[in-house]
Inverse folding.
């Protein structure tokens, strides 16, 4: 069973700052890694899939990198709507399996 | 426009049964699996299982605890409990799976259904 860990647990940043979030897998997931943003009181939204591909409509300030067991989500210039919880997720074709990391909360310094 | 519209919040007592729904529109229902995801209060996301008309796969953590089903005539999926526990109190999301990338990816989410179980 693949386990995802995320760091830091909380990241305190100011609007306009750069934010770097990490996700580590207990074993290689190849490039099957997605990132989601969950704003308070809302459902998650897909940001990145395939480790580095922005989903439709996602601004260019979001970028993803990594492969295997180490992944990074970077927000180049934080906007007010980016104060949220970010989850990484491993997805597999078959057997159908989805594993979420515990999340990183990005809050306003 | 892809939409997943979930049924409204529920307040139930322990031991009661419950069926919540997720109605899909804006895409071919029979071309996509639908996943269900639990989020307990203040906690993270947990995949419960995924369903497709005629097939269902459960996370080992939820196997035997819930029942997932799909009705293609109504483009609707269901999450069912026979006997609720207080620990089932959570927000439940349905979400669409897309395979255009070659792997099943959760791309669109419903708005969530809050289930509260309390005596």
């Amino acid at each position: 069973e693949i386990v995802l860990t995320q760091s830091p647990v909380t990241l305190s940043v100011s609007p306009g700052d750069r934010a770097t979030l990490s996700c580590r897998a207990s074993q290689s997931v190849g490039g099957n890694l997605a990132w989601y943003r969950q704003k308070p009181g809302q459902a998650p939204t897909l940001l990145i899939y395939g480790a580095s591909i922005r989903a439709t409509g996602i601004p260019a300030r979001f970028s993803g990198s990594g492969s295997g067991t180490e992944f990074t989500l970077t927000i180049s210039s934080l906007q007010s709507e980016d104060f949220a919880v970010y989850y990484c997720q491993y997805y597999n074709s078959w057997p159908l399996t989805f594993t979420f990391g515990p999340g990183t909360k990005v809050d306003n310094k | 426009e892809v939409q997943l519209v979930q049924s409204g919040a529920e307040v139930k007592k322990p031991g009661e049964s419950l069926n919540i729904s997720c109605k899909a529109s804006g895409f071919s229902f029979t071309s996509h699996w639908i996943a269900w995801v639990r989020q307990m209060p203040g906690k993270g996301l947990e995949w419960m299982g995924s369903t497709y008309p005629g097939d269902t796969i459960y996370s080992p953590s939820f196997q035997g605890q819930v029942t997932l089903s799909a009705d293609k005539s109504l483009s609707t999926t269901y999450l069912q409990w026979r006997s609720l526990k207080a620990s089932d109190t959570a927000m439940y999301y349905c979400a669409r799976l897309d395979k255009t990338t070659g792997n099943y990816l959760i791309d669109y989410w419903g708005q969530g259904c809050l289930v509260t179980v309390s005596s």
Notes: Chain B is about 0% helix and 55% strand. The interface with chain A takes residues 33, 35, 44-47, 50, 57, 59, 93, 97, 99, 101-112 of chain B (CB under 8 Å). The longest strand of chain B covers residues 90-98. Chain B has a mean pLDDT of 96.
